[in-house]
Amino acid sequence: MAKSPFLKNTWYAALLSSDLSEDLFSRRILDIPILFYRNQDGAPIAMHDRCPHRFAPLSMGKKQDNCVVCPYHGLKFDESGKCVENPHGSGQISEKAKVRSFPLIERHGFIWIWMGDLPADESALNRHDQLDKGHPNGIAHTYMHRQCNYELITDNVMDLSHVDHLHGEIISTRGQLSPLIPNLVEKNGDISVRWEYEQTPAILILDPFLPKPGIGGKHFIEVTWSKPSHIQLTIGATQDENPILDYDHTVAQYDLHTCTPETENSTHYFFATRRNHLEEDADYNAMKIKAMHDAFEQEDGPILDAIQGLMETNDFLAMDPALISSDMGPIKVRRTLKKLIEAEQ
Ligand code: FES
Ligand SMILES: [Fe+2]
User: Fold this and answer.
1) CA-nearest residue, atom 3 of ligand 1
2) I need a surface site. Which of 259, 276, 313, 327 has the fewest CB within 10 A?
């Protein structure tokens, strides 16, 4: 088997649930073109987007009931990728007329795909049940595409010390974050970094929901990476005297960032955010996800794409970077992932 630069026997986000219908949809994942659609029961289907005859993209073909018909010579494949009809000659079906299908799980508003050769392990997909708790207007999802390696995006989320330098007023920590060395914890293969600090005023995304806006409060941010490229971020603020700094005891939001390599140098970036305040306000929800989408597209994204253009290799450490204290988390993640990829090969 050829060496892959990616971890394969693991789950990646492939699509937002809301982006998949019964129509054929093609997306490249780990550099393999995949055809997606929903069958008539609504279940998501994924198979290699390449006909085994002359390698035409099946996504340019037609749906017929739950099957897909190749646009070039009309071989028809069922949802498992088995050829069920050959309109040519005697209609005999070659043993080679088989399309590889891929296991999927639909959960938390995403469709997750297993790209490896080992049997799919459902228990290996982390649960983020917090996303599903609460009012439906208290959660939103988005998708972005970037021209950079996925690890640049996971670095960016693991290392939030950039927020006061790159981002605007709305998520400023008033310079409080950069001087802090975050607390790093490794548990069951996951890697967390956590900051606790005070700022005045409170971070502006949370300040209006505190009992006394404008006077500041205690904050925490916790970011947890799980293989291969899922990052859960919780941020909360409170004005309690003896606060419990977690999602349930602060004005907080619970976010999931998850990155899926399209190719070595381009990434599908998925994002979901759940909050515990103003949960029922659909307009606020739409405004919030738009603001977060725009901040990434306009602030993080252009820097990351530009960095990609300046790096000679995706092996970040091979470029001998000048590291700073906040790199602890992202470097630990890179080393851990590298070991997992090497072990898989
Ligand atoms: S390429 Fe698909 S049927 Fe010929
Ligand atoms: Fe950022």
Assistant:
1) 73
2) 313
